[in-house]
Design a protein that fits this description.
The protein is mainly beta. The chain is built from five helices and 40 strands. The strands form eleven sheets. It has a six-stranded antiparallel β-sheet with strand order 5-10-6-7-8-9, covered by helices on one side. Strands 29, 30, 31, 32 and 33 form a five-stranded antiparallel β-sheet that branches. A hairpin with a 5-residue loop joins β29 (457-460) and β30. The longest helix is centred in the first third of the chain and has 22 residues, at 24-45. The radius of gyration is 33 Å and the shape is elongated. It holds the Pfam family CHAP. InterPro entries: CHAP_dom, Papain-like_cys_pep_sf. Residues 129-255 form the Peptidase C51 domain. This is CHAP domain-containing protein.
Length: 591
């Protein structure tokens, strides 16, 4: 639960104002030792399966842990026992000795009061522990922390985390002129201020839900496959610390200033395609189990390489040689790049480079007709390798500074109308660089920071115009054009886009179009040229996953198709019919 101090009721305010924190003298040494044992026990009890208890205890660095008092439910007073007269021994009669009264045994003195670490009140250990009437604590008569949230509530703890871990020194209940208030308000306030609020967790993001009377917020400390680990206050333990690992779908996520990007990478694509000269496309994809599939136009897909060995979050790279044969490269789970082309009717993949398991390689033909490969290593070093005349690969050529490139996005290779090979890559900080590999040095492209979980799309249309489509960190889709050897600043396509998915660009019915994932998870098809309306209308296929990128492919005598994922299935539909009420062309995806 999380209160903002603007929503504390008058009854709670009066109760909070009349209580005070017991002193050490009131508690006594015995109470202090007992308090230490109880606090340790409650911290251990607040952990979850799979979390080391000591780590959970050490992570509770909230400065006001265990301090303050909450208003408590009135308790029935403990009645002191009456003195008990001593029963005479047999044969003894009262008054045998004149002047003597019957002996009386006094009851033992009451035990010293002890401190309840949750409520902050002293209580008689012979009775029940105090129960908080409301989860509002006061310290020295105040119910608010230095940032305007209620002591020991989830909002106060998350505010502390944002200051201490995220470096948001100015965050508070009136941050940027908005009243954040209770936890159920936080997502609405974040949206009004322009922050990204979505279903994709990231380390340092605020996990938020409207469930409960006033909602709940927590701080994301780890992200797993479909799960999220959060740190929180005032949830399972009133006014206390806890951690949980839960399905990521239990929360929405406020990206105020993430510590690290989401591991749900943008280099993954539903399918990658390479068009041939006959109006069809070769396709390649990695399924959810990590098996690599390759299909030629009109033929069923076949597995390539070892099954379940490839990274399911990094798409393969595919291109056709001048002879029309595919060159295929893919990243394994262990971070190896395997590449190959059919030889004697069999496609054998060999190790070519190292790569982050979250980043796809890139493959393209050079002006000499030989393949060129680019990959980002696990430490963020970008290298290129060329196929030599002797059929081997050249030594890796490092590009830019080592350990500076993003590992949640992929490098891009392509050619312009003059046949020059271009390399485009994004740094870990969101800066975009481009380089003509024939000659020229890296040039930084102007504009806002790019998304580090979305791979750009490089294309050259029939008019000879080379464009770069790229999603920014804030979800805008920009288009740069190449003029000579220089790139323009981005022009913007209308709409909001997912920074976790990658755009795909192709010619649809004589007009360049882009297929991308919108800010709400829908697959959207738009004109790829800013200011040019699309004759397809404003079609979108509903969806909910912000991390899945659509693919574009051509079928002989069928035109361009949009391929999107629905659950475990891939569905293809004509790009010209990508509207809300259209139906898939088949029950499943067939290349």
């Amino acid at each position: 639960m999380g209160f903002g101090n603007g929503r504390c009721t008058s009854r709670q305010s009066r109760s909070c104002a009349t209580v005070s924190l017991p002193t050490v003298e009131q508690v006594g040494k015995t109470g202090i030792r007992w308090l230490a044992r109880v606090v340790a026990a409650t911290c251990l009890a607040s952990g979850v399966a799979g979390t080391v208890a000591a780590a959970a205890h050490a992570s509770d660095d909230y400065p006001w842990a265990g301090r303050g008092q909450c208003p408590i439910v009135p308790q029935v007073p403990i009645e002191e026992p009456e003195p008990v007269p001593v029963t005479p021994t047999p044969g003894q009669q009262p008054g045998d000795e004149p002047g003597d009264a019957a002996p009386v045994v006094e009851p033992p003195p009451p035990p010293p009061p002890v401190l309840d670490p949750v409520s902050g009140h002293l209580y008689d250990p012979r009775g029940p522990r105090p129960t908080c009437a409301s989860r509002v604590w006061s310290i020295d008569g105040s119910i608010g922390d230095p940032w305007g949230f209620v002591w020991r509530n989830c909002t106060s703890f998350v505010s502390w985390r944002l200051h201490e871990r995220n470096g948001m020194d100015r965050f508070g209940n009136h941050f940027r002129g908005e009243h954040w208030g209770n936890a159920d308000n936080w997502d609405d306030v974040a949206r009004r201020l322009g922050y990204r609020v979505d279903s994709v967790p990231a380390i340092g993001a605020v996990a938020q839900t409207d469930a409960g009377r006033v909602g709940h917020v927590a701080w994301v400390s780890a992200v797993g496959p479909g799960t999220v680990t959060i740190e929180e206050y005032n949830h399972a333990l009133p006014g206390g610390y806890g951690t949980r690992t839960v399905p990521a779908t239990e929360f929405r996520y406020l990206h105020l200033d993430d510590v690290a990007p989401s591991p749900y990478v943008g280099s993954d694509r539903t399918v990658v395609a390479a068009p041939d000269t006959l109006g069809g496309s070769w396709t390649a994809r990695v399924d959810d189990r990590g098996t690599l599939w390759l299909a030629r136009p009109g033929r069923p897909a076949r597995t390539v390489g070892p099954r379940r060995a490839f990274s399911p979050v990094a798409a393969p790279a595919l291109m056709l040689s001048r002879r029309g044969l595919p060159w295929l490269a893919a990243t394994t789970r262990e971070g190896r790049v395997l590449a190959g082309t059919p030889r004697r009717g069999r496609l054998v993949l060999r190790r070519v480079a190292r790569s982050a398991s979250t980043a796809s390689p890139a493959v393209a033909l050079t002006s000499s007709g030989r393949p060129l490969l680019a990959a980002v290593s696990p430490d963020g070093t970008l290298v290129t390798r060329r196929l030599t005349l002797h059929g081997g690969w050249s030594r890796p050529a490092r590009v830019g500074r080592p350990a500076s490139w993003g590992t949640h996005t992929a490098p891009v290779l392509g050619a312009d109308a003059q046949g020059r090979s271009w390399l485009v890559a994004v740094t870990e900080g969101g800066a975009t660089f481009a380089q003509s590999l024939g000659r020229g040095r890296l040039q930084r492209l102007g504009g806002p920071s790019a998304s580090v979980t979305s791979t750009p799309a490089l294309s050259t249309d029939g008019t000879g115009t080379t464009r770069l489509h790229q999603v920014t960190a804030t979800g805008r889709l920009g288009v740069r054009t190449l003029d000579g050897g220089r790139w323009s600043r981005p022009a913007w396509l209308a709409g909001r886009w997912s920074p976790y998915a990658s755009p795909a660009v192709d010619d649809v019915a004589g007009q360049l179009h882009v297929a991308a994932t919108g800010s709400r998870g829908a697959v959207v098809v738009r004109s790829a040229v800013p200011g040019t309306p699309s004759h397809l209308g404003r079609g979108a296929r509903p969806g909910r996953d912000l991390t899945l990128s659509p693919g574009l492919l051509t079928r002989r005598d069928g035109g361009v198709f949009v391929v999107a994922r629905t659950g475990a299935r891939l569905l293809a539909r004509p790009a010209a019919a990508a509207v809300d009420d259209s139906l898939p062309t088949s029950a499943g995806f067939t290349p």
